[in-house]
Structures are given as structure tokens and as C-alpha cells.
């Protein structure tokens, strides 16, 4: 097991203690490699009246995936920060009819360098992420989100 994956496993345990809602959303094990994060979830606890994925659940999983990606990245940089979503835009592209996963990837290194520079100089920074909700290879929803991090004092 890689250090990144061990970090993700410990993070999920911590997260379930911090946000009680996610204990009821059917999350599977996080898959994390230091550059991308996959957050799988079961359809059954996230279903709507039509038998497909409830939009609010899909949005929650995607938002949380981006938040977790930023938080894990900062922790691996040795930073203790409060992370929150500032704003987001969601596009629903296809119904989700089975288990699904939200996937977030860090942006390119120049954006990460700018983010860390703001964190170093101002104690806060913003990172824009693109998160996809996928059912297999099909992209069912996208979330473009701006996440803000603030150093804890």
C-alpha cells in the first residue's frame, strides 16, 4: 500500500467522524495517488424517486471529493488548513443508474505553485478544480469548483 493510499484510508476514517452525513451515503474506499482522488459511492442510498442518482447526492459527493482533494494535498505539503468551497457550477449530463464515483485531479504544477505561493504569503489561497461524477466510463455530472484554504493559526 502506498503512503498516499494509507493517508487516504486514515483520512476517510477521520472524515466519517467529522461529517456524519457521509456515513449514510454508501462511500467505498478512497483511491488516492497524490495527484488524483476517486471517491466511490453506492447508488442505493443516493437514489431518487425515478430510481436514478439524486442530484443533491451527486452534487454532495462531487463537492466533498474536491474538498478532500485540496485537504489531502495541503496535508501532504505539511499544512493544517481550513478548506471550504467558495463557489461551483454543476452540469448534469446523464442519469446515474448504478454505483458511481466522483473523481478530482489536481491542476497543473504552475497552478499549484501559485496556490502555495498565496498560502505562503497571505495564509490563504484559492484552487480551482474540475470534478467528474462517473458511472463506469460515462461522465454523468461535472462540477467546476473554487476551493479556498486558510491556514489555521
Automatic annotation (TrEMBL):
A Pfam family hit: YiiD_C
InterPro entries referenced in this protein's UniProt entry, alphabetically: HotDog_dom_sf, YiiD_C
Highest taxon in the source lineage: Bacteria
Domain Thioesterase putative: 15-150
Protein name listed in UniProt: Thioesterase putative domain-containing protein
Species name: Amphritea balenae
Lineage start: Bacteria, Pseudomonadati, Pseudomonadota, Gammaproteobacteria, Oceanospirillales
Amino acid at each position: 500500500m502506498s503512503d498516499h493510499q494509507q493517508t487516504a484510508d486514515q483520512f476517510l476514517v477521520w472524515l466519517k467522524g467529522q461529517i456524519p452525513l457521509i456515513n449514510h451515503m454508501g462511500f467505498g474506499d478512497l483511491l488516492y495517488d497524490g495527484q488524483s482522488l476517486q471517491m466511490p459511492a453506492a447508488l442505493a442510498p443516493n437514489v431518487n424517486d425515478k430510481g436514478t442518482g439524486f442530484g443533491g447526492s451527486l452534487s454532495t459527493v462531487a463537492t466533498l471529493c474536491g474538498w478532500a482533494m485540496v485537504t489531502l494535498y495541503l496535508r501532504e505539503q505539511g499544512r493544517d488548513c481550513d478548506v471550504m468551497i467558495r463557489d461551483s457550477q454543476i452540469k448534469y449530463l446523464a442519469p446515474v443508474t448504478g454505483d458511481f464515483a466522483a473523481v478530482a485531479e489536481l491542476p497543473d504544477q504552475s497552478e499549484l505553485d501559485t496556490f502555495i505561493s498565496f498560502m505562503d504569503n497571505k495564509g490563504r489561497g484559492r484552487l480551482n478544480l474540475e470534478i467528474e461524477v462517473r458511472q463506469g466510463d460515462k461522465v454523468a455530472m461535472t462540477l467546476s469548483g473554487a476551493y479556498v484554504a486558510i491556514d489555521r493559526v
